[in-house]
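ok new one. same drill as before - structure tokens go in, u give me an amino acid for every spot. 358 of them this time. try not to just spam alanines like last time pls lmao
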């Protein structure tokens, strides 16, 4: 690989992509954008992941392929409510287009997937449980990410599949380009909208800061890793549900919010008693919010500890300690509360955690 490889990045404005760009000062970066420009890339190129040749004419496509040494494919639909067609169109078909470019360019392909492909058997749909009024369908997202991984594995191009768990904000500042995933649960907790959480107290809640994911990908590029699967997870250091709720609650109290702390209950009790007795008569919006939470938390309710690849390789960061994860969570909670206008005129917090080293 050249001393200053040219890296084509998709999803550069997203959570992982925006954190990755500052980690690649020794690379020439090209951000493939769809609509909105991004900051931090050396070049920007408008394209369409779902179109042949990315929507470029033949000459422009060939010029691009001749330049690219590395492709980092972060772009994906990560929400659970877009429906199977739209989700597969980007997460599977879009991956197919990028793999083709990697083949044409002779480039190494780094595909950002998700650790939760390992938990497809835990969705409510897979377990045969009622969706209720939920609009969230984790099974659509997970099916599309598994299909995307299959595209990569069958392509024959040198490739690494990167599997982060839940991605939260920057480990020190909590800053994130868009609130997603667990941030929705955190927001509900801060506002006192979740009187119960249908996850056992001891279940591991695996999350990692966005800068750790970015540092891992940057390390793989510098190491010139060309095959395998890399799990970017907290692994055995993941917080339990009980500890996560305590950290969120304590941070909220420090910010002066003092929301009611939720009760932890098993999902079986929810389906047998709470939904039919207490939830059925709520306003439709409240029922939908509750059922969406059920759909999302099902991936954690009986989840096992994820494997972790952190610390395995010269350029790969070590796994964060439980204390570092707690500090990162506090930073994300504080950033969300401030950004959402829930707290005002408070001094900026002194974050206890240190940035995860690259």
């Amino acid at each position: 690989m050249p001393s200053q490889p040219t890296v084509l990045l998709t999803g550069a404005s997203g959570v992982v992509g925006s954190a990755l760009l500052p980690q690649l000062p020794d690379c020439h970066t090209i951000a493939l954008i769809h609509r909105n420009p991004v900051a931090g890339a050396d070049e920007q190129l408008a394209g369409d992941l779902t179109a042949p040749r990315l929507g470029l004419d033949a000459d422009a496509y060939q010029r691009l392929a001749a330049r690219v040494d590395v492709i980092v494919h972060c772009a994906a639909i990560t929400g659970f409510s877009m429906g199977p067609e739209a989700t597969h169109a980007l997460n599977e078909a879009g991956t197919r287009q990028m793999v083709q470019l990697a083949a044409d360019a002779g480039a190494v392909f780094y595909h950002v997937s998700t650790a939760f492909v390992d938990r497809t058997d835990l969705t409510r749909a897979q377990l045969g449980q009622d969706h209720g009024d939920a609009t969230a369908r984790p099974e659509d997202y997970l099916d599309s990410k598994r299909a995307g991984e299959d595209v990569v594995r069958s392509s024959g191009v040198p490739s690494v599949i990167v599997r982060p768990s839940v991605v939260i904000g920057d480990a020190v500042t909590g800053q994130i380009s868009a609130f997603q995933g667990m941030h929705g649960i955190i927001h509900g907790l801060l506002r006192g909208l979740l009187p119960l959480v249908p996850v056992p107290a001891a279940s591991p809640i695996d999350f990692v800061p966005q800068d750790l994911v970015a540092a891992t990908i940057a390390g793989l590029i510098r190491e010139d890793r060309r095959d395998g699967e890399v799990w970017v997870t907290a692994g055995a250091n993941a917080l339990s549900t009980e500890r996560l709720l305590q950290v969120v609650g304590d941070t909220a109290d420090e910010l002066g919010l003092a929301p009611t702390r939720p009760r932890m209950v098993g999902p079986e009790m929810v389906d047998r008693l709470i939904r039919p007795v207490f939830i059925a008569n709520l306003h439709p919006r409240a029922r939908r919010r509750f059922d969406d939470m059920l759909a999302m938390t099902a991936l954690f309710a009986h989840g096992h500890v994820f494997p972790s690849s952190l610390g395995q390789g010269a350029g790969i960061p070590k796994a964060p300690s439980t204390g570092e994860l707690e500090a990162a969570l506090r930073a994300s909670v504080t950033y969300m509360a401030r950004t959402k206008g829930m707290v005002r005129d408070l001094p900026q917090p002194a974050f206890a955690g240190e940035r995860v080293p690259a």
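The CA atoms of residues 23 and 95 lie 23 Å apart. and btw The longest strand covers residues 28-33.
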